[in-house]
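Q: How would the structure tokens look for this protein?
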Amino acid sequence: MCDIDYVAALYVGWDGIDRRKIATGQKTIRFLEEVIADAAERQAYRTYARHLYDMYRVGTVHLREPKIVVKVDESCTTPALTWALMQARRDFVRIGAESYSLSHLEPIVVRKRIANFPEATMLPVSIQALFDDFLSGCEVLATRLVAALPPEPLALRVGIRRISRQRL
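A: Here is the predicted structure in token form.
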């Protein structure tokens, strides 16, 4: 997620005033929602961008493991949003006597005690899928940047003017 923070800061930009605002959670969430969701063609990045950031950026950097997000309002269906890390886009997990089929960014409700909660919603994240989708997002961003360039970049125009003045 720190790599996503970095590219998100490039995507959103910086006002040049406060160095602490170069990379922010809001920029990362915006990059997930606006670029990675389009590049990966997965609405789930828009839906769960805030949760991904809270769980996998804040949690892994500061807590050494993804963070469990506690119910914040009545729209939540379970008291907690927990995590499952997978290598592939699809996997299985066994909790107690039950097996659950997991898919990247497709939450499931687990009606078992998890981390002191009687039940929880699990948001599975495939490390490989997240990496692949991030790379796709970088490619989309690069394409957008190239498309936004003027036909003749400013540095090139200035260089040409200097050369043509010397010849006059």
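The longest helix spans residues 127-148.

The beta strands are 69-70, 80-86, 90-95, 98-103, 108-110, 120-126.

Upvote if useful.
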